[in-house]
């Protein structure tokens, strides 16, 4: 089955193009990527509900990641959704443990190879469907 | 995996959007549960006004849909949106980017947006579009807006699903008129020249008017409107005309006729794809047929004879999926 990803730029990082670039690369990996542009957690979760997202991808330049990232997971769980939430962009490694504890499945730095991200998604989504 | 329980149907009837999302996912992926759903009596309504928005790539369809939704939501209507984008034939992936143009809708209630990839379907829509529309209609949406992929010349599927077809074009269509003339120009109930802030809008309207006057449609003369979607200009007039077309369909009896035709086409489509699936399965899995296929491949026997054998074989086995 086709993997569906909802990809958003977290909050107001308007000049950050990373999310669109990653969206295109995941498309080239065979996924269906719904690109939202900039949105806040509540709206991202609503979009994921409407789109039936297997994966929510959050892209950030940092600054808001510790608050808005976990917020997405929190709202999602409260609404009874269980998409895989991943983050990418510029995030200090020191913050990784906190984010993972909050339910972010994985964090990808700017140097991540796309195959790595795609393989991670495929492995996790497949086990969850099975 | 979700299953179709009374509880689920009840939540659906109570307008639980999470349930709607889950059920639409089943329908989108054409799962067993998805088909169960489409057969369920709670999912046969057919009340929503279905409006297809079509036109060349980048003409402003998504932006326009966003503005139409915003205005309709403010008027208290319940809205469904289905946006279709092409699947890459090479990777099977798709970038569904229409929502970017509808970001401001996030703050309005009663708008449900679903993006679909064509998944190999030609004709400008996804194979599951009619099914997704059926479910949104069952969710008591008043109006469902259907954005096709950016179309060229031969994408007419939107006609089979919509009550009202809006063709969105841009100024300076003198050239594109040539390519669109092939027929896509004839299909619309409403013509929009969007991006009217760009030069040549009035000429385009004139060109279109000439064409519309030549057209054979007698009882409904398609209006031609100028819009600037990015500035919400002309959007109210467009909405008025969409409503006017609905009234026309209702008063002229065409509303019911369109639905009859739609059901018929759907029956035909569904039946054909069932049969195709059965045939494909047999050709893949039946050892006897496999042997004959190899003979056809080697050119030892003609495809017509073996095709007849396959059909005869299937009817003897009784058609089961
Ligand atoms: N100047 C001007 N630009 C517009 C107008 N409407 C839309 N645009 C711009 O045109 C571009 C394409 O708009 P979309 O709404 O994405 O067009 P679309 O037809 O949905 O495109 P596809 O879905 O890719 O076929 C965007 O940059 C819009 O901001 C308009 O009235 N005037
Ligand atoms: Mg669009």
Automatic annotation (TrEMBL), chain A:
PROSITE patterns according to UniProt: B12_BINDING (PS51332)
GO molecular function: cobalamin binding; isomerase activity; metal ion binding
Pfam families noted in UniProt: B12-binding
UniProt entry keywords in alphabetical sequence: Cobalamin, Cobalt, Isomerase, Metal-binding
Domain of life: Bacteria
Domain B12-binding per the UniProt entry, residue ranges: 2-128
Cofactor(s) the protein requires to work: adenosylcob(III)alamin
InterPro entries: Acid_CoA_mut_C, Cobalamin-bd, Cobalamin-bd_sf
Listed Gene3D superfamilies: Cobalamin-binding domain
Protein name: Cobalamin-dependent protein
Organism, scientific name: Neobacillus novalis
Organism ancestry: Bacteria, Bacillati, Bacillota, Bacilli, Bacillales
From TrEMBL, chain B:
SMART domains from the UniProt entry: AAA
A Pfam family reported for this protein in Swiss-Prot or TrEMBL: MeaB
rRNA-binding in keyword set: no
SUPFAM superfamilies: P-loop containing nucleoside triphosphate hydrolases (SSF52540)
GO molecular function: GTP binding; GTPase activity
Alphabetical list of CDD domains matching this protein: MMAA-like
PANTHER family (UniProt xref): LAO_AO TRANSPORT SYSTEM ATPASE (PTHR43087:SF1), LYSINE/ARGININE/ORNITHINE TRANSPORT SYSTEM KINASE (PTHR43087)
Protein name: Methylmalonyl Co-A mutase-associated GTPase MeaB
Natural source organism: Neobacillus novalis
Upper lineage: Bacteria, Bacillati, Bacillota, Bacilli, Bacillales
Gene name per UniProt: meaB
